[in-house]
Amino acid sequence: MDILTPDKGGAIDSSTFWPASVLRSSWTASSWPTPLQMVSTASPVACATATHLLTQPTRRSPTLTTVSPPWYSLFMPRFRWKNVPQRHPVENFTTLPSGPLASIPRIQAHFTIETKEEKQERQSRLAAVKEAFVHSWEGYKKHAWLQDEVAPMSGLASNGFGGWGATLVDSLDTLWIMGLKKDFDMAVSEVKTIDFTSNELETLNVFETTIRYLGGLLSAYDVSGQRSTILLDKAVELGEMLYKAFDTPNRMPVTRWKWKNGAEGVEQEADRFALLAEIGSMTLEFTRLSQLTGDPKWYDAIARITDTLQAQQNDTKIPGLWPVMLNAKTQDFHKGTTFTLGGMSDSLYEYFPKQHLMLGGRNDQYRDMYTTALESAKEHIFFQPLNPNNDQMLIAGSIRRHSAHNVELVPEGQHLSCFAGGMVALAAKVFQQPDEISTARQLVDGCLWAYESMPSGVMPEIFKAIPCTGDSHDNCTWSEASWHAAVSEHIQKSDLSNQSPESAQRVIMQRNLPPGVVDIPDARYSLRPEAIESIFILYRITGDRTLQDRAWRMFQAISTATKTDIAYASVEDVTEEQPRLYDSMESFWTAETLKYFYLVFSEPDVVSLDEWVFNTEAHPLLRPT
Q1: Is 560 annotated as a binding residue?
Q2: Which residues participate directly in catalysis (predicted)?
Q3: CA 20 to 30 Å from 358, out of 41, 389, 417, 612?
């Protein structure tokens, strides 16, 4: 946010800081109010905040004119988030668990020596993935440098994450891992200029800011050998800002946060409607920040959320799982009726085994929460889909609880829920649950089936399948008649009643439905990483090289469908063999998707799972040793 001098045609956007007697429409460089006028008419916090905004133009608003008063450097301190008083300060912090590290089993497989031919093939694939990243990165550098994202078809820049350079920060660790050290150093030099005292958005998504920006900075600091202090300094600076979102009466965060209220010291309350993933998925990043700084406040902030979640885990309408929507204001985390491992919930569950690793296994809280959640998910969420090859696979669906005796399975597969296979595989090793490796494999196979079934070779955002019923294998034996009947039933439920059996065939042809799929409510593909994430984890855990082959076919399909002259674009409809594209490339394409593809074809010791924990934006954080 810039405050403009009126004589240049701008409007002073500072009425929340200054009374009308101070805001004069005729200010020029020669008629600034004196320091005494400023200090006498505003609070110290407001004074520091507004003065910083007056004197710090952003690089993303080059057409705006700012004028610094001549006395600025002598009288006015720079605004810092850490100096904003807490209205609801914490008296006793929950500190990081101490004591010796727990004995955690080896996670990665003992890989056999590859043949010369296998190595050449792997390295060729690795080079192709790196080339895709470089193409994307160069497109960003050329068309949208220092902006959040580049539009891969038009070349326009967008700032949907506040204008702090989301793609730049999100890609830092990928640059380092891929050996692009010159670009890494150049990007780090730009990180110094990011101004975390303001943002182009009025409302900040605290979760997205945490996983992309804070996670990106911490990871870049760790993977580069902790050699660049600017990365940690900026992570701390951002952490101070985000901590202010927790300044509520019950210390639950404002997940969609009007950050100016925090800067001004306005009273804040946690949200009455908060998404499960957004309130519960900051554990890794805040814990790592406390580990690196020795300041317990960030760990304390997330520990309070975890304690609340654990206390109510068995009181929800599907015990063991939490509903998608929570009331953070009243700390009611159990009354909702919709449950899923997909969008709006996903990373909460993903973080349980990962946080156990990040804490060195020093307490059992996250293990206990994960184990309870997994048992409930296996009972209610995971289902076997009817499929033409009668393969054993699982899909993570969703649940709607209408009453105690009416619990409805929504047999949908979400791309977002494809992380589940990797989560279950990782936890199976960490918590010594060897039988769950087969569960993980079936979940991965379910997402691979969704990819390989589509005409484009790419999985849609959401599709609906046919859940097998009962325990008998006969109830899951493929027949085309069963598929058509399921399509007809779905048509009727969709208020298209009185359709003849021929209607199912017509719908299948019109919508280009693959065998076993009854509907595709969202046929887009937005360059998502969840499926390759799980393949990467399962490959590193099992050493199964067939997973590399399937990952390669996946990469080829995605690359063929999405590559543009500038970068890579999202797909409108994966049921088309040559799908149309839309002009979007979110930063997770370079942060997550291409990183996981790269690591599938890297040497197994590159970012080993026995040394690193990946946050939900694929930012590896160093495990305690």
Answers
A1: no
A2: 208 (proton donor), 346, 461 (proton donor), 530
A3: 417
